[in-house]
Write a structure and sequence with these properties.
- The protein is α+β, with helices and mostly antiparallel strands and about 120 residues long.
- The strands form 2 sheets. Strands 1-2-5-6 form a 4-stranded antiparallel sheet.
- The longest helix is centred in the first third of the chain and has 15 residues.
- It starts with a helix and ends in a 5-residue tail after the last strand.
């Protein structure tokens, strides 16, 4: 293998392992910004709630992923008595709920929960 191909292969392998900023790193810049800036960036919240001088704005995201069928071996299916059989494809739904606390028009903090938060 030529050196150029080896360098390209190694760089592609390293790029495949690279990850972007975490959810905390992406949300932290909103702390201290105005409520208007938050809504302009993320859109209209799903829910709002006000209590004791604070407002809570909740944003939700739901994503569906198709999962391919998995190979398995069952008697009587596929090719002959013990042939290959693919289970049917399915889907997975991941959700993330992010709540920002706003006091006096400024984002004070945020929390998030759900299996789709990354």
């Amino acid at each position: 293998m030529k050196l150029g191909r080896w360098v390209l292969l190694c760089s592609l392998a390293a790029a495949g392992c690279a990850t972007g900023p975490t959810l905390d790193q992406r949300l932290l810049p909103f702390v201290g910004r105005s409520e208007g800036d938050l809504v302009a960036a993320l859109g209209v919240p799903e829910r709002t709630y006000e209590v004791e001088g604070r407002k809570f704005l909740t944003f939700e995201e739901t994503r569906s992923y198709v999962v391919a069928g998995s190979p398995a071996f069952y008697p009587g299916y596929g090719y002959g008595r013990f042939g290959p059989y693919l289970s049917p494809p399915g889907y997975i739904v991941r959700t993330c709920e992010i709540t920002f606390a706003v006091r006096q028009g400024r984002v004070e903090s945020f929390t998030y929960r759900g299996d789709g938060c990354r």
